[in-house]
User: Which sequence fits this backbone?
């Protein structure tokens, strides 16, 4: 991404077109199916070990709801605690402000390189591109992020950014690109995971040892103590958080928690929901700066970038409770078949479909709320109980309304819905069209299924397997089989209409 990119990679192309392209890639689908299936099974197994799993989810959801209602209070409290512990807090209203703050902080050190901990927030604002524009090179140290960076690719998963790549593809990327970024991969490199990890370890080690500045995101921050938390599985993040002299953390304002004690709940939910582990191998916590232990300078950049506007939406604000575990991606039938790139967003999958339109404006990401079957699997898997289907439906209505406002004339869909409303609101009108409609559907049927309908209905019917309606409607069957007075089988509305 270039420094000019603001929030996400949007609309090039929109989800329907991008999804069709992804569905044609059989290797991509195989990689996704294998990876998401493995993570999904592990998550189910470790979650089942806890008798109080649902109670933990309820508690986490309650904490998040409370925090979002009082976000201003807890952010000010966090600022006070971080400052008291020797850190410096910066407020960034948008991506441009955050990039400017981080760039100026790095320039002030005189350095031209930074090492980075995996961070969705810095991807969201396009920080690497902004630093590059300023002559500063950022090195990703998370293994999957390293793969993506070396290949000049884009992440396709919140937790496993290179989930769309196979081991053989990663080997080719390492052999081809590592030498351009530092220590090259050995010529004898195989696609064995241990060999790939060792090549990455040797490549990154020299960067860790010479780095003076590190940039990180944050999983959580406790308002009462000013403690910031990063969880990871490899230890590369720990190297970034402890070795450099200056640490700059970019954190979305929704990541704050009221108290250090709240971490007890979230550090049980996050690893089980994300990697299927009982706990993260590396959980790094720091509070300001400490002489002789870790970086001597700490900056915390609190990022808004559309979050305050999202907070104003009573339905949509629940998306801000997300803890970036990616459980919703791993259970989503749409994501499993299309991958993350199809969403055109830093945040892919179900959470991206509800978060991105709110951060950038639903009119700029109008196709994303429709990138779902509304099956509800994401809600069942979410550790903080975000009702993603509810938000999707809410945003679909907003997308339709935004489209309506931009048009001088109503769309074909709007006219069809208006006509349907007029028919369905009257039992007599409904009865009048049921017979002819059923007859027409049977004439167009093939093997008991309705084929592609003519005109504006072609796109809808061409992608659905719709059974032929029965020869007799429920209403007609009811009247025929009921005995007694002529009006006994009619509804009160019908009887009133007949009068």
Assistant:
């Amino acid at each position: 991404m270039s420094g000019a990119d603001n929030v996400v990679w949007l609309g090039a192309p929109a989800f329907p077109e991008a999804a069709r392209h992804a569905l044609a890639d059989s290797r991509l689908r195989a990689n996704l199916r294998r990876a998401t299936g493995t993570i999904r099974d592990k998550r189910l197994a470790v979650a089942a070990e806890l008798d109080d799993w649902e109670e933990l989810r309820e508690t986490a959801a309650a904490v998040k709801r409370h925090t979002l209602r009082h976000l201003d209070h807890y952010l000010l409290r966090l600022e006070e605690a971080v400052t008291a512990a020797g850190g410096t807090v910066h407020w960034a209203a948008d991506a441009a402000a955050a990039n400017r703050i981080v760039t100026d902080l790095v320039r002030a050190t005189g350095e031209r390189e930074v090492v980075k901990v995996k961070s969705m927030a810095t991807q969201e604002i396009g920080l690497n591109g902004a630093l590059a524009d300023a002559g500063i090179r950022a090195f990703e140290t998370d293994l999957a992020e390293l793969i993506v960076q070396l290949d000049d690719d884009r992440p396709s998963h919140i937790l496993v950014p290179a989930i769309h790549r196979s081991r053989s593809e990663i080997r080719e990327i390492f052999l081809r690109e590592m030498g351009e970024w530092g220590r090259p991969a050995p010529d004898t490199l195989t696609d064995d995971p241990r060999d790939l990890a060792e090549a990455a370890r040797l490549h990154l080690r020299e960067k860790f040892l010479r780095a003076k500045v590190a940039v990180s995101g944050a999983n959580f921050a406790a308002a009462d103590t000013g403690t910031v938390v990063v969880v990871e599985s490899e230890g590369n993040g720990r190297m970034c958080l402890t070795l450099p002299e200056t640490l700059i953390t970019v954190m979305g304002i929704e990541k704050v928690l009221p108290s250090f004690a709240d971490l007890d709940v979230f550090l049980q939910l996050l690893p089980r929901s994300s990697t299927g582990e009982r706990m993260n191998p590396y959980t790094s916590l720091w509070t300001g700066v400490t002489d002789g232990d870790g970086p001597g300078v700490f900056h915390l950049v609190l990022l808004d970038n559309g979050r305050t506007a999202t907070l104003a939406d009573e339905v949509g604000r629940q998306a801000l409770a997300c803890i970036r575990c990616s459980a919703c991606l791993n259970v989503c039938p749409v994501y499993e078949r299309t991958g993350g790139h199809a969403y055109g967003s830093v945040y892919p999958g179900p959470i991206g479909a509800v978060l991105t339109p709110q951060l950038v404006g639903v009119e700029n990401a109008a196709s994303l709320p429709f990138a779902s079957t509304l099956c509800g699997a994401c809600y069942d898997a979410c550790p903080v109980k975000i009702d993603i289907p509810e938000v999707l439906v809410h945003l679909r209505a907003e997308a339709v309304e935004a489209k309506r406002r931009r048009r001088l004339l109503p769309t074909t869909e709007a006219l069809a819905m208006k006509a349907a409303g007029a028919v369905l609101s009257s039992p007599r009108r409904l009865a009048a069209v049921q017979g002819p409609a059923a007859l027409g559907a049977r004439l167009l049927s093939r093997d008991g299924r309705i084929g592609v309908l003519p005109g504006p209905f072609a796109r809808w019917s061409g992608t659905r397997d719709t059974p032929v309606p029965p020869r007799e409607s429920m209403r007609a069957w009811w009247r025929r089989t009921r005995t007694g007075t002529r009006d006994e089988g009619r509804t009160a509305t019908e009887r009133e209409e007949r009068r």
